[in-house]
Design brief:
By secondary structure, the protein is an alpha/beta fold. The chain has a single domain (3-186), classed as Vaccinia Virus protein VP39 (Rossmann fold, 3-Layer(aba) Sandwich). 36% of the residues lie in helices and 25% in strands. The protein contains eight helices and seven strands; from the N terminus they run H-H-H-E-H-E-H-E-H-E-H-E-H-E-E. Helix 3 crosses helix 4.
């Protein structure tokens, strides 16, 4: 898909569902690479992507993953989900037109080594945001990392309440500048259980 077609598809999705999409343009490839550099995808056996959008993260994740890994990509917009399925043919990829609130049910008892999220947490209703973050923490393997890209630092407080360590970077050349987070470890005994 060309960059222009990708942007047009993303813009149509934003207009139809602004609270679910959260941005007018897809995240820049540079910001995606900056965020993925904060995780260890080359060692990940199971990766979960929340909010696959037009596939800008998906392609880069697959490039970095081992040949025998698996990627489970969630996208609630049916047009975006089917576009990813058409444009990326990779046996490691499974695209689900489902809410990220149901991540654990689709892992069938497995745990994710890395969770990559571009969901617009700031614009999601609080109960939905809470469920997704709680489910993500439970779905993460011990020692796993949740990578999050946002356009405000708001979610950092919520990540810190669930994880022992939260690193933050800024990708200033993205429009708008993006806040990148890498969250690992439990915040308290029994967290995420």
């Amino acid at each position: 898909m060309s960059r222009l077609a990708e942007r047009a598809l993303f813009l149509r999705s934003f207009i139809a569902h602004p609270r679910k999409v959260g941005a007018v343009l897809p995240t820049s490839r540079r910001a995606v690479r900056d965020m993925l550099d904060m995780g260890r995808l080359e060692e990940a056996r199971c990766v979960v992507e929340l909010g696959a959008g037009t596939g800008v993260y998906t392609g880069e994740i697959l490039t970095r993953m081992p040949a025998d890994g698996s990627l489970l990509a969630f996208e609630v917009d049916p047009n975006l989900a089917s576009a990813i399925g058409r444009q990326i043919s990779d046996r490691r990829l499974r695209v689900l037109n489902e809410s990220a609130e149901d991540v654990a049910a689709h892992l069938h008892g497995a745990k994710a080594d890395v969770i990559v999220s571009g969901l617009p947490y700031t614009s999601l209703p609080a109960p939905v945001r809470t469920r997704i973050l709680d489910e993500s923490r439970r779905a993460l393997a011990p020692g796993g990392t949740m990578l999050v890209l946002q356009y405000s630092p708001f979610v950092e407080r919520e990540l810190r309440s669930r994880f022992g360590e939260v690193r933050r970077r800024v990708s200033p050349l993205n429009v708008p500048p993006a806040f990148l987070f890498a969250a690992t470890g439990d915040s308290r005994p029994g967290a995420g259980q």
